[in-house]
Amino acid sequence: MSTAHPAVQDGPAPVVVVDTDSADATRALGARLAKLLRAGDVVVLTGGLGAGKTTLAQGIGSAMGVRGRVSSPTFVIARVHPAADAGPDLIHVDAYRISSLEELDALDLDSAVADSVTLMEWGEGKAEALSPDRLEITVARPHGGLAAAAPTGSGETRAVTDLARVDDGRRTVTIAAVGPRWAGVDLRPLAG
Questions:
Q1: DSSP calls for 23-73
Q2: CA-CA distance, 97 to 46, in Å (whole number)?
Q3: Which of 80, 122, 131 has the alpha carbon at shortest distance from 99?
């Protein structure tokens, strides 16, 4: 299930914040997002380890109908998922270990960006070199466990962290449109 934070403007929303309550809901958000994407689009995915960047990418890849399992490209840095039909390919990049624009340039992504949708995890501060037009998406999850009451043995209770429920699947996804490609594109329908 997804919920959107209230929009405060009447025109197209350049930023939308969507709360999801499970990995499936995050993938469903990715599927809705895929409907807006076209060849040449660059999407920057930001968030901590385990935030759900790859889960969102899986929803995008599934809805785009690309071949191959969309998984974290950490060890290969960039993986191309060919389109199964007439749509664009999906280039899934993990820029975590890329420390300079020279290293990014060495991947030679420029030659494929125009014909593909490029998703770049950990791309903040790096993807800007690929395109002035992009979606900047931040995926955040609650930190810490949920508080539970535990007996102390002296008849009192104290709050403890319930590690079994540290990650209950909830995410807050902020999607910001940057550049003229996204002018006039209303992101509010992404809330489902």
A1: HHHHHHHHHHHHTT--TT-EEEEE--TTSSHHHHHHHHHHHHTBSS-----
A2: 14
A3: 122
Q: Percent of the chain scored above 70 by pLDDT? A: 73
Residue 167 main-chain phi, psi, to 5 deg: -115, 100
Contact 77, 102 (CB under 8 A): no
Q: Using N-to-C axis directions, what is the helix angle for 23-34 and 53-64, rounded to 10°?
A: 50
Q: Would you state the structure tokens that stand for residue 101, as one six-digit string?
A: 């624009």
pLDDT band, residue 8 (cuts 50/70/90): very low
Q: Break the chain down into helix, strand, coil percent, rounded to 5.
A: 25, 30, 45
Pick from 96, 92, 177, 167: nearest CA to 135: 177
Q: What is the pTM (predicted TM-score) of this model?
A: 0.80
Pairing outcome for strands 89-94 and 146-151: unpaired
CATH superfamily of this structure's domain 15-143+165-182: P-loop containing nucleotide triphosphate hydrolases (3.40.50.300)
DSSP 160: E
Q: Taking Cα atoms as reference points, which of 48, 12, 54, 14 lies closest to residue 30? A: 54
